[in-house]
C-alpha cells in the first residue's frame, strides 16, 4: 500500500516463527487508569483485513493470529526509555515480557503508531504528564484485537482500537491492555487515518466546536497551519463551510505547501510576515474577520493572530512551538473584549471519560468524514521499527512537513 510522504510510520514486521515481547508501561497518574503491557505474536496478518479475526472460530475469543502464535508469544519488541533526555540517545529497542491476559483485558497487535511532538516532549521530560520509568514511548496509534478476556463485553477479536488516553505506550508490537483503556474504530478507514485519529483531529474538532458558535460563512485564523492539527482544522472547517486563514512560516517550498493546504480546503494561505502588513485589509474585503484564532506557536505569531480577531472573538492556544510566551495587547482586551483560552485534548478526554458518549460521538463524526474522503491524514512517511532512530531524528527537525509513523 502506498501513502503520500509526509508522516513517517515505523513499520514492524513480525516474523512468523519468532515470538516477540513487550513490557508493561507504567504510567503517571496510575490511579486514573491501569498500566498497560505489550503482547506479541509469531505471525503477521495483512493490514486492513477486517475479517481475519472471524475465521477459524474454534474459540470465539481467540483469533487465528493468537492460535498460530501459541502460548510462547508472551514477549514483544518495544521502544523503551529508561531515563529522560534526547530521544536519539535514550530510546532503545528492547524485548519486554508480557503479563497474563486478565478477564477484563485484551491482547492486541499494534498496527501503526505515529511520532508526535508530545511523544518527544514526554521522552525529554518536559511534558505535562510523565510516565514512571522505564516506559514504552508513544501516546497514539491503532491496534487490532487478537484475544479478549472472558469478561470483555465491548470488544471482539479483529476489532481496530485506539487509546482512550495518553500514556499507553504504543511503540511496540503487541500489548496486553485493559478493555477500558481502548475504544473501537471502524476497520474500513485507511490505516494511517486510524493511527493518527486520536490526537490531532480530535484537538481540531473540539477547538472548532467548543469555543465559538461557528456557522457556515464564518472564518477561523490559525498559525502552524501545516501541522497535523492545522491540516485537520482546514478539512473539518471546509466540510462545515467555514473559511480558514492559514499562517505558515516562510520557506523555500512555500508555494508547494500553500497549494497543498488549499487543495485540502484551505481558503487563504499566508506567510507570518503578512500578518503585520496592510495586505490583510485587502484579504478581509472578501473574508469576514475571524471569530476564532487557533495558536500552536506562541510568541509574536500569537499576538498577531489576536490583532485580527473580530470583537469578542476567542484565541485558543494548544501548542507553543516557538517556546515563547503569549503576549496579549491591552487594547485587544479593552477595546475588542477578546477571550484568551487554552486547550489540551488529554484533559478533555479525562473530563469526559465517565460515560464516554461525547468521545464516541466525536470519533463517529470524524470517521464519517474520513469515509466520505473529507478528512485525510497528514503527509506520512513509513519507517521500519529497526529504523526508529532515523524517524526520531526526523521528527525533531524544523520545517518538518511529514509525520513519522511506526508501522508495527
Automatic annotation (TrEMBL):
Which is one GO molecular function term here? enoyl-[acyl-carrier-protein] reductase (NADPH) activity
The record's family statement is: Belongs to the zinc-containing alcohol dehydrogenase family. Quinone oxidoreductase subfamily.
- Enzyme class comes to oxidoreductase
Catalytic activity, EC: 1.3.1.104
Instruction: Enumerate the Gene Ontology biological process terms.
Output: fatty acid biosynthetic process
- Any one GO CC term of the record: mitochondrion
Where does the record place the Enoyl reductase (ER) domain? Answer: 85-406
Q: Where is this region: Disordered?
A: 37-56
Put simply, this protein is called Enoyl-[acyl-carrier-protein] reductase, mitochondrial
UniProt keyword list:
Fatty acid biosynthesis, Fatty acid metabolism, Lipid biosynthesis, Lipid metabolism, Mitochondrion, NADP, Oxidoreductase, Transit peptide
Any transmembrane segments, and where? none
Q: InterPro entries, alphabetically?
A: ADH-like_C, ADH-like_N, ER, GroES-like_sf, Mito_Enoyl-ACP_Reductase, NAD(P)-bd_dom_sf
Localization recorded for this chain is: Mitochondrion
Amino acid at each position: 500500500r502506498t501513502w503520500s510522504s509526509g508522516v513517517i510510520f515505523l513499520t514492524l514486521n513480525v516474523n512468523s516463527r519468532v515470538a516477540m515481547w513487550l513490557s508493561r508501561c507504567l504510567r503517571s497518574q496510575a490511579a486514573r487508569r491501569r498500566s498497560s503491557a505489550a503482547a506479541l505474536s509469531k505471525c503477521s496478518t495483512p493490514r486492513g483485513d477486517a475479517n481475519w479475526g472471524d475465521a477459524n472460530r474454534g474459540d470465539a475469543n481467540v483469533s487465528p493470529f493468537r492460535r498460530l502464535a501459541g502460548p510462547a508469544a508472551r514477549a514483544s519488541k518495544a521502544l523503551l526509555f529508561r531515563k529522560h533526555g534526547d530521544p536519539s540517545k535514550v530510546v532503545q529497542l528492547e524485548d519486554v515480557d508480557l503479563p497474563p491476559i486478565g478477564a477484563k483485558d485484551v491482547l492486541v497487535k499494534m498496527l501503526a503508531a505515529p511520532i508526535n511532538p508530545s511523544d518527544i516532549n514526554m521522552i525529554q521530560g518536559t511534558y505535562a504528564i510523565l510516565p514512571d520509568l522505564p516506559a514504552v514511548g508513544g501516546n497514539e496509534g491503532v491496534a487490532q484485537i487478537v484475544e479478549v478476556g472472558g469478561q470483555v463485553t465491548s470488544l471482539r477479536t479483529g476489532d481496530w482500537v485506539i487509546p482512550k488516553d495518553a500514556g499507553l505506550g504504543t511503540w511496540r508490537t503487541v500489548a496486553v491492555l485493559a478493555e477500558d483503556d481502548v475504544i473501537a474504530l471502524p476497520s474500513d478507514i485507511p490505516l494511517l487515518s486510524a493511527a493518527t485519529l486520536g490526537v490531532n483531529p480530535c484537538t481540531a474538532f473540539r477547538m472548532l466546536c467548543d469555543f465559538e458558535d461557528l456557522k457556515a460563512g464564518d472564518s477561523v485564523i490559525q498559525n502552524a497551519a501545516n501541522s497535523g492539527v492545522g491540516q485537520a482544522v482546514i478539512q473539518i472547517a471546509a466540510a462545515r463551510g467555514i473559511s480558514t486563514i492559514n499562517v505558515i512560516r516562510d520557506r523555500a517550498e512555500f508555494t508547494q505547501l500553500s497549494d497543498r493546504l488549499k487543495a485540502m480546503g484551505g481558503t487563504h494561505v499566508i506567510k507570518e510576515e503578512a500578518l503585520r502588513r496592510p495586505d490583510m485589509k485587502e484579504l478581509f474585503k472578501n473574508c469576514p474577520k475571524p471569530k476564532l484564532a487557533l495558536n500552536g506557536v506562541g510568541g509574536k505569531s500569537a499576538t498577531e493572530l489576536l490583532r485580527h480577531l473580530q470583537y469578542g472573538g476567542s484565541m485558543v492556544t494548544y501548542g507553543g512551538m516557538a517556546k515563547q510566551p503569549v503576549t496579549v495587547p491591552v487594547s485587544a482586551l479593552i477595546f475588542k473584549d477578546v477571550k484568551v483560552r487554552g486547550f489540551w485534548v488529554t484533559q478533555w478526554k479525562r473530563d469526559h471519560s465517565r460515560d464516554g458518549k461525547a468521545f464516541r460521538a466525536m470519533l463517529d463524526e470524524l470517521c464519517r468524514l474520513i469515509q466520505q474522503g473529507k478528512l485525510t491524514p497528514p503527509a506520512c512517511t513509513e519507517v521500519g521499527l529497526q529504523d526508529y532512530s532515523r524517524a526520531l531524528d526526523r521528527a525533531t527537525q524544523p520545517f518538518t512537513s511529514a509525520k513519522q509513523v511506526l508501522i508495527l
